[in-house]
Design goal:
The chain is of the alpha/beta class. The protein is about 45% helix and about 20% strand. The protein has 18 helices and 22 strands. Strands 2-1-3-4-5-11 form a 6-stranded parallel beta sheet, sandwiched between helices. A 5-stranded antiparallel beta sheet has the order 13-22-21-18-19, covered by helices on one side. The radius of gyration is 39 Å and the shape is elongated. Mean pLDDT is about 85; it is low at about 20-35.
Length: about 675
Amino acid sequence: MLEKSGYIGILFLLFTAVFALDGCDDGGLFADDEKKYRVGLSQCANDTYWRKQMNNSIKANATQSKTLEIIKITDGENSSSKQIQDIEDLIREKIDLLMVSPNEADSLSGIISAVYNMGIPVILIDRRVSSNQYTTFIGADNKEIGGKAADYLNLLGKDRTDILELHGQAGASAAQERSYGFNSKLDKSKNFRHTGDLYCNWSRSAAREAVTKFWEEGGRCNVIYSHNDDMAIGAWEALDSLGVNTDSITIIGTDGAAGEDGGIRAVVDGKIDVTFFYPDGNEEAIEYAEKILSGEKVPNYRRLGTVQIDRNNAEGLLGQMTMSRRQEDRIIAQNETIKSQSGEISGQRVWLVLISFGLLTFVVMFIITMRLYHKDRLHNVQLNEKNAEINAQKEELENQAIYLSQMNEQLRVSKENTLGSIRSAQTIQNALLPTEEDLNGYFNAFIIYSPKDIVSGDFYWYGSETSDNVSTFVLGVIDCTGHGVPGAFMSLIGINILDQIIKQYKITSPAEILERLNASIRTALKQEETENNDGMEAALCRIEIETQPDGVTKKYTLTYEGAKFPVYHYKKLEGKMEVYKTARREIGGKFRNIESSVCFEDHTVALSKGDRLYMSSDGIGDQNNFERKRYSSRRLVSAIQESFSLNMHEQRDYIWNDLKQFKGDCIQRDDITVMGIEIV
């Protein structure tokens, strides 16, 4: 049996163990070796999807830090006085560093300067304050983002632009700078005007109510520029509920948040047309906080970049960013699980110590100590397994990134090789076409020739033959099925067949040329035996210049025919334009004209010196603009008529510039060819 002094010794050891374990949370035996700095984040509000994602990302990145701990994220509820109170509460929590996204620049300057002068580092995120008493500012250039929104609008090419601007808070630096950057970069030469400015406090519901009231009171616009995506989506919801055709209204947002409720999803779903990515700076904030608290110097301003997100890239970015957000959620959940397990183990440790204190025997104390040891060991095994899982996920992501990089490089090389081959084919195709110099040997002429995809399914043809007193010229514009490489193959076949018909067989009748071309195409492509249905549309002209017996006077005659394409004839003496329709029939194709009863027929008219002839493919008339309107053959005729007083080269430039101004930055839909001939 133990003596009384032995019991006293055991009691003393138990008391010592209890007090030692009680102090574990404050740096006792089981405390972490490395100090965790206490960081507080003061948000101006948590009511927008973008800010919720920002908070989540900062928490996820902080869990990966060995030196930082986010002790609290406060919600200023869009109130400067509430945010000032939040910052004072964080100071009482004895934070080592303050992160803050200010509600208003002027109202928050005083409290932020006070915290900075207390020796507590301050990192401003997203918005600035009026003073310069802070450690660093991390954020994108709001003026630049507003300017990019204006650049986008400048390129739309609307005849008249009525703009409704949705503002955040009047005193917020982000709202002021986005509005200034946008309005200062609008093209002054264009017809822009503001029809309204609504202050919606960054809120989707407030924007929905404000736009509904604006529209019901008679306000109108065809462009909405919003300082964030929530207000842009609210504006779309208002217009949609009112039954307004939102396709006719361009909606521009800002933030580019991922997720099912964010701006990128709104672009994919067609609710808004474009948004501009506004990074939340979460990774940079954690990086700078670690450097500042370890004694390193950081720049006073960390500028974050932006990118335009429209329907060309929104879906891909949404997938990438959604994957990143899911990974952040998993990291936060795993960190919470680890904290919960640590709390459970700590509770079990205290409970076992209390039991051991009641037993008052050295053997029981020894057993309890062993149990604590095994519990700690099990906990370490669980932590190691969790860390291994996280590392495996990280390695998998890195491997995927490497694989994607390799695939992108392979695609780049393949694309370059393909483009190189196509450019070589372009050189061959261009070598087979006549030049303007060839035509200008006998006429004043111009050619507009613009392939859609490097090589073209359009081509134009020229040939001549001269006898004693008659010079004969055959000219044509032909549009093959398709464009790019398939169309180019068809054009080479067409050029070869026309060379045989006109140069070898000396046939100059446009109707007979088209009949033979039709038969040759169907034979060459074996269209009687296969499902091939490729063909051509064309306009052909034969110009005969007959020198009279006096050797000076000349007689000019035009014979024309075509496959659907008209011939345009400007009569100089009468000062008017004639449009000669041709056969409603196509060339080639098993199913295009096998049952057709339409025959090609020659049509002859007299020409005079100074007359002009024009032929074109349908590519110029089918070109659309941003309003989905076609250029049309009627506008082509108008452009020709408006430029009759110009010489042929000047007229070519006039027509081409009119087309470019009409289509703006819209993608070219088809190959474009226009030929103009002046009789001299």
